[in-house]
Amino acid sequence: MLIVDNVSIALGGRNIVENVSFKAKPGTVTGLIGPNGAGKSTLLSALSGDIPLAGGSITLGQKDPQHTPVRELARTRSVMLQDVGVAFSFLVRDVVEMGRRPWARTDQAEFDDEIIDAALEATGTTHLIDRDIMVLSGGERARVAMARVLAQRTPIVFFDEPTAAMDIRYQEQSLGLIRELAAHGATVIVVLHDLNAAAAYCDSIVCLDSGSVAAAGPVAEVFNSKILSKVYGWPIEVSTTSSAIHVAPQRARKGTMSAALIAPLSSKNTHSHMG
């Protein structure tokens, strides 16, 4: 189980996350949603043990990520970051193999090749194994990053906008893999901006707004028009059928662009603006 108890996080002298509490059970997918700047990625970094807490506590299984040795932590949780860019040239298979490093010199290491091959196959990246990851598209790099996470084989898995760079086919396949991880007992936390994807693939939702929990609970409880419209500052309609929850924002009929951006400027005004 993942337990987040009254967690606060401060960066640059400013509180980014304040008094956040929730629990996530094995076998479930918990979605973190909320507008830009709500604190989702910052919270995920703290859950991963990558940034310190200003207050509260986090428990991953029986471990405190803030005080767990790096290798032990890497055997407990794996993380797919939102930014899957790389700074050095590696072959795709080498990148996926990095997910097995926490298990080096353990009895699990003998299964490395089998696990790496399975992760590549699951993410549709087997054909890329001899390619330099630097030359891949954003969507391909994201799938390789997901393969690395799958190869790490941890009981707790964090995903930060995992499908943002993918086309519709691989978005659905990747979310299906996330769902399958939970079905096999993993505790999964996933940051998503696509509310319909969150409704379809998550068991529960933690909705953040300005660093605090605006709503938390089962998808059907959090996904209602009043809550989402207030959090996102935009009219959102939520409809529910016997098989699905659908979220539809009101379409903008007219923007609020200043005339200075679209109307022709007189030569006088042009000269004045040019100095």
Defining traits:
Rossmann fold; alpha/beta; 275 residues; globular; three-stranded antiparallel beta sheet; 34% helix; single chain; 25% strand; six-stranded mixed beta sheet
Report on the structure:
- This protein is α/β, with parallel strands linked by helices and 275 residues long.
- It has a domain at 2-76 and 154-232: Rossmann fold.
- 34% of the residues lie in helices and 25% in strands.
- The strands form three sheets. It has a six-stranded mixed β-sheet with strand order 5-6-7-3-8-9, with helices on both faces. Strands 2-1-4 form a three-stranded antiparallel β-sheet, covered by helices on one side. The protein has a two-stranded antiparallel sheet with strand order 10-11.
- Helix 4 runs antiparallel to helix 5.
- The termini are far apart.
- The mean pLDDT is 93.
- It comes from Corynebacterium casei UCMA 3821.
- Residues 2-235 form the ABC transporter domain.
- Keywords: ATP-binding, Nucleotide-binding, Translocase, Transport.
Rg, Cα atoms, Å: 21 Å
Question: Sheet bearing the most strands, described?
Answer: 6 strands, mixed
Uncertain ranges: none
The structure class reads: alpha/beta
Q: How is the CATH topology of the domain at 2-76 and 154-232 named?
A: Rossmann fold
Indicate the mean pLDDT.
93
Mass-distribution shape:
globular
Instruction: Give the N-terminus to C-terminus distance in angstroms.
Output: 62 Å
Which CATH class of the domain at 2-76 and 154-232 is shown?
A: Alpha Beta
Would you identify the CATH H-level superfamily of the domain at 2-76 and 154-232? P-loop containing nucleotide triphosphate hydrolases
Number of helices: 11
CATH architecture of the domain at 2-76 and 154-232: 3-Layer(aba) Sandwich
Question: Strand content of the residues, in percent?
Answer: 25-35%
Q: What portion of residues is helical?
A: 25-40%
Secondary-structure element pattern, one letter each: EEEHEHEHHHEHEHEEHHEEHH
- Strands, count: 11
Strand order of the largest sheet: 5-6-7-3-8-9
Pfam family, one: ABC_tran
GO molecular function: ATP binding; ATP hydrolysis activity
Domain ABC transporter: 2-235
Keywords: ATP-binding, Nucleotide-binding, Translocase, Transport
